[in-house]
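Hi U.,

Before I forget, here's the chain from the pilot set. I'm dumping it here mostly so it's searchable later in email.
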Amino acid sequence: MAGLLTDEEIDTALAALEGWRREGTALTRDIPITPDNFDWLREAVTNEADALDHHPEIERTGSGIRFRLSTHSAGGVTAKDVELAAHIDQVVDGAARDRG
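Structure:
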């Protein structure tokens, strides 16, 4: 089982993860996108998550997409969540460059 990160470890990780915040026992990030970009972004992130054997909550919001990361078996935020957040950022940053 993955060990929970301390508050200090989470704060340190968040300092390096632009746009992410702590919400209860999870890391979340809202990204504004147009509705037609939701499916491909969800699929790209799901592929990254599958490769890491970790599964985020992905939700459509009024203005885009929300990612919520938590290791349910550990009851909160672990290094696995931080790693997936970094991978999500790479997907989003790459997409912005490709589409920008």
